[in-house]
Specification:
With 289 residues, this protein is an alpha+beta fold. It is built from six helices and seven strands. The chain folds into two domains: 98 residues; 148 residues, 2-Layer Sandwich (Heat Shock Protein 90), CATH 3.30.565. It has a five-stranded mixed beta sheet. Strand 6 and strand 7 form a beta hairpin. The two termini are 45 Å apart. The relative contact order is 0.10.
């Protein structure tokens, strides 16, 4: 990509030099028409630099996209290897050691959690791909959003605070119904809660609230994690966008979660905004009109 920029700027310099030279020759041959030559030359320069600037932005955008794709591939590789390695170790332990029934059930439960994590990641990538190529139709039906959020919280809930585990504190108003794409909205709620867990510290509480107010439905997911800088709050919903480099970043993820959240909510005429939590962390607020 750097070579492309060098060639691009070399061509611009060459074209500009040629323009100046031919303008000089024309002015020397036709001194009486120097005004016309200067006018047409000025128009040509404006058009030329407008096109060059547009091309420069396109090349720069493509360069950034390629870097994001590289980071995405690195993160996906890491995300796949981690749960697969965990599942392999657990199954090998069950196979090679004489364990009690309670230990076996515990290891199987951990393996199933890792499989759910892999399943969520695959579903995210498939949904993001379908949204990107406009092949997903977002079929809408009426269903209980309260039941949906409650089931996701129960699946992601952590009952013990050990190591890097968190506790989800949920306040879910019952009997809240909505008309929408249940599969896509499941991905929205899952991504928001998993994102809050991922960026929170050990044993930090993640708060999930679902309630209705003034004919609107509100979903809030709050954490006490690292927070989001003001200049990044509008960029976190871009596809593949993640802060920093994949080689040095400690948090897991593919950069697709919040992209999916924004795209799905746009299709449901819903809004999402992020604000600072106090004293630290972030609050994601979704509003269904």
């Amino acid at each position: 990509m750097r070579r492309s920029f060098v060639i691009f700027y070399a061509l611009i310099i060459y074209a500009l030099a040629e323009l100046v030279w031919w303008g000089y020759l024309l002015a020397k041959l036709m001194p009486s028409d120097i005004g016309m030559i200067m006018g047409e030359g000025s128009v040509f320069i404006v058009v030329f630099f407008t096109g060059a600037y547009s091309l420069h932005r396109t090349i720069k955008r493509e360069r950034k996209l390629q870097e994001q794709k590289k980071n995405f591939l690195l993160s996906v590789t890491h995300e796949l290897k981690s749960p697969l390695a965990s599942i392999k170790i657990l199954l090998q332990t069950i196979q090679k050691r004489d364990l009690s029934r309670e230990q076996i059930l515990n290891f199987i439960g951990k393996s199933l959690n890792d499989i759910d994590r892999l399943d969520d990641m695959v579903e995210n990538m498939l949904l993001a791909s379908k949204i990107d190529n406009h092949s997903y139709t977002f079929p809408k039906d009426k269903f209980s959003l309260s039941v949906l959020v409650d089931s996701i919280v129960n699946r992601l809930q952590i009952t013990k605070c050990e190591g890097t585990q968190q506790i989800i504190d949920a306040e879910i108003e019952p009997k809240i119904e909505i008309t929408g794409d249940k599969f896509a909205l499941t991905s929205v709620v899952t991504n928001l809660i998993e994102n809050a867990i991922k960026y929170s510290g050990p044993c930090e509480t993640v708060a999930v609230k679902l309630f209705s107010k003034q004919d609107k439905i509100f979903l809030e997911v709050a954490d006490h994690g690292i927070g989001i800088a003001d200049h990044e709050k509008n960029r976190i919903f871009d596809r593949f966008y993640r802060v920093g480099s994949e080689e040095t970043r400690n948090t897991k993820g593919t950069g697709l979660g919040l992209f999916i959240v924004k795209e799905v909510l746009d299709k449901h005429q819903a809004s999402i905004k992020v604000r600072d939590n106090r004293p630290v962390g972030s609050i994601f607020e979704v509003v269904f009109e």
